[in-house]
C-alpha cells in the first residue's frame, strides 16, 4: 500500500504536465491505496482537471477502469454545474443592475469562464459577489425579495456577519441549484495586512468580461492573483486544495499582470513570502510558468525544497477535518495561556459569535439558550473529531502544517 505522502505526490505530478516515470503507477495501487487517492480527488474537486491532464499530458499512463469511470462522471457533473453557475451569476448581475448597485464577481467565476480551457475543469462551490461596504445588507434583502432562500445550515444573523465576517450567510438561488455569497471585503476582519479591496483604485481597476450575453464585472487579473494567494495561503493555510496551482498557471498564461503593482500591494499586505512560496510551488509543478513570473527588485526570502514540498502536500490534507487539523497545529505551537484562551473562546464565544452561528437576534434573551447548544455541539461533534485525529497520517499533517506556518511567520519579518 502506498503511504499518504507518496499518494499525494503522485496525484500532484499527474495534475502537472511533467512526465511520470512509471506508467504502472496507478495500476499498481491496491484497493487500500486507491481509496485515499480517490478521496483526495473528490474532496478537492479535482476529477475534471485530472481527466483533462491524463488525456492531454499523460495519455501513455494506463489507469484502472473504475478510476476512468469516476473521472468521466465527475466531468459530466461539473459541466452541468458550470451551466448552473453561469445562470446564477447572470441572474445576480441583472438583479443588481436594476438597482444600479456596483459589484465585482470574485475568483472562481473568472477562472472557470475566462482562464481554463473549459469551464468544467474549474468546479465552483458557489458564486462570490463583492459589493461596496455598507451595501451588503441591502443586496441580501434584495436577493431574498427576488426568491433567493436562506440555507438552514447557515442560520446566523446577516447583520452580525456583516460586522464579524467578510461575507454574509450564503443564499440558494431561486432554482435551488446554486448558492451565492455576498462579500463586503476580501479579507476576514482577523486577517493581518491590508484588505485588498481597500487598495488604491481597486474598483477602478476592475474589468468587464462577457458571460453569456452579459458584461460581468470582475477583479482585474492582478487583483485576482493577489486574492487567490491571500485566500489560499494566509486565510486558508493551503487547506482549500491544489486547484490553486492550476488557477494561477491558467491566469498567468492568459492575462497580463502588472508586476510592479502586484509586488507593491504584496509588500503592504505582508504577502511577499506567501506569494514567493506559491510561485515556487507553481514552478515545481508547471516549469513553463518560470518565464511568466517577474520577481521583485527587492530581496525575498526563498523557501527550501522541504518547505515547498510541505506546502504542496498540505493542499491535499483531509478536507473534512481541515479546520480541526489547523486548530491542532495552532494548539501544538502555543503556550499554556494561549491553549487556555483557544479552548475558552471556542467553548464560550462572544454574543456576536453566537448570533453569527445560530438563528437568533443579538438583542434577544434566547441568545443565552444557544450557549449550552453550542457546548453540546462541541462536545458531541468537534471533540470526537479531535480525538479521531491520532493516526500517524493526521499527526504528520499537523506537524507539516506547523512547519509551513512557522516558515511563513518567520519569513514575513523584516529582513
CATH topology of the largest domain: Beta Polymerase, domain 2
Helix content estimate: 40-55%
Strand content: 5-15%
The separation of the N and C termini measures 44 Å
Could you list the spans in which at least 5 consecutive residues all have pLDDT below 50? none
Highest CATH level, the class of the largest domain: Alpha Beta
Query: What is the string of SSEs from the N terminus onward?
Result: HHHHEHEHEHEEHEEHHHHHHHHHH
Number of alpha- plus pi-helical segments: 18
Number of strands: 7
Could you say which overall geometry the principal axes of the C-alpha atoms support?
A: globular
**Strands ordered across the widest β-sheet:** 1-2-5-4-3
Rounded mean pLDDT score: 88
CATH architecture of the largest domain: 2-Layer Sandwich
What attributes characterize this protein structure?
415 residues, 5-stranded mixed sheet, two-stranded antiparallel sheet, 7 strands, 54% helix
Give a concise summary:
The chain has 415 residues and is of the alpha+beta class. Helix content is 54%, strand content 6%.
Notes on the structure:
This protein has helices spanning 4-14, 31-43, 47-56, 65-98, 108-114, 136-145, 158-164, 202-205, 221-235, 243-254, 259-268, 272-285, 305-314, 322-332, 336-347, 351-357, 370-388, 392-411, and strands at residues 104-105, 127-130, 149-150, 171-172, 179-183, 207-211, 214-218. It has 18 helices and seven strands. The longest helix is centred in the first third of the chain and has 34 residues, at 65-98. It folds into three domains: 4-75, no CATH class; 90-300, Beta Polymerase, domain 2 (2-Layer Sandwich); 322-411, no CATH class. The N and C termini lie far apart (44 Å). The strands form two sheets. The protein has a five-stranded mixed sheet with strand order 1-2-5-4-3. A two-stranded antiparallel sheet has the order 6-7. The chain has 415 residues and is an alpha+beta fold. Helix 3 packs across helix 4 (65-98) and helix 9 (221-235) runs parallel beside helix 11 (259-268). Helices cover 54% and strands 6% of the residues. The mean pLDDT is 88.
